[in-house]
Amino acid sequence: MVAARCFTDENDYVSFFGVERRPRSIIIISLLFILLGTLTLIHAAWDLVNTEARLTNLQHHWMIYLSAVAAIVGGAFLLKGHNWARWLLVLWMAFHIVVGALHGIVPLLTHVVIFSVIIFFLFRRPASAYFSSQAQKSA
Question: Could you give the number of structural domains in the chain?
Answer without folding.
Answer: 1
